[in-house]
């Protein structure tokens, strides 16, 4: 085989080396092209991701706010029920204590108030009698 025949032979070292160089160059150029395309698309992709993120945030915020409102309403209901129950319990306790004190002979608040008024009236009458007695002397 002559040297020219070896150069034309697709399996010759020179031909194989050239094919490898050409393939490497194509791979390099494809990489550069992909990098350039990715760089161009990156801005568009980023903007699209931001837009999708904003939409998702709006949706989830609405759902979250609804859930939060539902929880707040439920807490308010439970609190109202607890307050009502506590008030009823307090009334029952007051009534039972009042009855127990009454059975022990303790006067009620109304009875104390009536006695206080009577004492005030008696004091006023005593003061009046003392003034009339002094002016009569």
Summary tags:
137 residues; mainly alpha; rod-shaped
Structural notes for this entry:
- The structure is a single chain.
- The chain is an all-alpha fold and 137 residues long.
- It has helices spanning 3-8, 13-103, 109-136.
- The longest helix is centred in the middle third of the chain and has 91 residues, at 13-103.
Order of helices and strands: HHH
Strand content: under 5%
**Low-confidence residue ranges:** none
The oligomeric status of these chains comes to: single chain
Based on helices, strands and strand pairing, what is the structural class? Answer: mainly alpha
Q: Count the E strands.
A: 0
Radius of gyration over all CA atoms, rounded: 51 Å
Shape: rod-shaped
Please render the helix and strand layout as text.
Elements: H1 3-8, H2 13-103, H3 109-136
In short:
It contains 3 helices and no strands. The chain has 137 residues and is an all-alpha fold.
């Amino acid at each position: 085989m002559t040297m020219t025949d070896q150069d034309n032979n697709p399996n010759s070292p020179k031909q194989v080396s050239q094919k490898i160089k050409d393939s490497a160059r194509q791979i390099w150029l494809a990489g550069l092209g992909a990098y350039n395309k990715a760089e161009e698309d990156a801005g568009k992709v980023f903007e699209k991701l931001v837009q999708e993120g904003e939409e998702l945030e709006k949706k989830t915020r609405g759902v979250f706010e609804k859930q939060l409102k539902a929880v707040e309403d439920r807490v308010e209901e439970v609190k109202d029920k607890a307050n009502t129950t506590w008030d009823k319990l307090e009334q029952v306790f007051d009534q039972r204590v009042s009855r127990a004190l009454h059975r022990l002979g303790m006067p009620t608040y109304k009875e104390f108030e009536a006695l206080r008024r009577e004492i005030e009236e008696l004091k006023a009458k005593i003061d009046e009698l003392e003034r009339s007695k002094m002016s009569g002397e």
